[in-house]
Amino acid sequence: MPALNFAEQDLVGNNFRGQNLNGSTFFKARLENVRFDPNAAGTRTQLRGTNFSESTWINVNARLAIFAPNANFGPADLSLATLENVNLSGADLRQANMSLIDTKLINLSNANLTSANLQEANLSGEQSERPNLRGANFTNANLFSANLKAADFTGATLVNTNFQEATLEATILVNVNATGADFRLSNFTDVTLQNSIFDGANFTEVTLSDVLLNPGQSSNLSFRGALMSNFVADDAILTGADFSPLGNTVTNLTGANFNNTDISGANFTQVSAEGVFINGLAIGANFTNANLRNADLSKGDFTNATFVGADLTGAIAVDALGLTLGDETNNAISGTGGKDNIFGFAGSDNLNGLGGDDYLDGGAGNDTLLGGGGNDILDGGGGADVLVGGAGNDTITGGAGSDTIRYSSGNGQDRINGFVTGTGTGRDLLSFSGIPAIDVRTVNTANGTNTQFRVGDGIAGNAGFGTGEILMVLVGTNFTQANISSNITNSPNTTFLFS
Length: 499
Ligand SMILES: [Ca+2]
Ligand SMILES: [Ca+2]
Known about the structure:
The protein contains 1 helix and 29 strands. It is an all-beta fold. The structure holds calcium ion (CA) (2 copies). One calcium ion binds at residues 362-365, 367, 380-383, 385. Keywords: Repeat.
């Protein structure tokens, strides 16, 4: 069929089902009750390269219609069209120009809008009758300044989609893949956000407000490697969200603001979040190795959170739960029976974790760290520190300076990282009490030689040598008989035997 010219015509009830209308023009035409859906044999209507610019569609069925370009026809043009109660479900709209279209009750479910131009499109509606964009593919589509109020994107593919300056009010973003999408300057409020991927997406300076879920639900969102500097979450639920790196790319949350926002269970491992503000629930959140310099964590609830290796230089945490920060002076800080994170910073600090699985970070200065009960992590930092793991299986790092690690009978199985043997500056010391005999044996692992200190029977070379209960493992350190004189202190009642 040759291309047809319906420009400026009034089409009512026309049946184009299964026809080939490639290259036709409907410029400024009015289409009411027109059919472009497949015919009875299932043949899809072809509308490649058609010109629907400035046309008006009312009650049109274009389900599965093909608008995409091919070797002979370019992209379809629907720019400035008005679409009311139009079904474009499953339509192939790749590369279509849909800029400035104005829609009402639109159905684009499962449509393919890859690389389509939807700049300033109106795909908005009311929450009672949401624009249906479920399962649609907007990969590389341009939704710059589009109005997406109440649109339902459930299951949509939004990879590298441009949402800059778009209105996302009361929009549903559930089960979407928005990897690499750009949300800068978008208006993000009352959105339903759940089970979605925003890895590598750009939320720089975006404010997300009133993002709520039903009680007990987890947001299950992934923001790995996303650009989120000066991002603001206000009254939002981002529980369980993943802000950990995407490959080697860390998530940038510099200057981000989590105001009255629930980030419990969220993973902030390695985030770059200098100056971040958190004042809400962060129960069980993971800040391992995060850059939290100059952060304001006051009033945050960090119960059961993890701050191992986090950089909290210049940070404040007034009235925070689960996190206590010292200052440049000599601090004496005791934790609780639960999991504590205690940072001493400079000065000669006394940090006492008491019960629970604690993290104690001495920082600069000659500090004394007492883990207490539980499986604690102690990091002395610079200075000549005294580290006592206490009961439980502890992980102890002396850091720079000549540190002393004290172990008493009943202190569990501890792992010591970075222990320095010998007599030089910065050598570390071990002190044992309440253990009559210790068998010392080295074990070669894939990561180097470890030294085990095990309960011994005081008899050298017998069959049971080195099989007693492990007391301590020096990870990556080969501790020899010669080190008794240089690296054991205050252990007068213990005999050391070597294999
Ligand atoms: Ca201090
Ligand atoms: Ca220290």
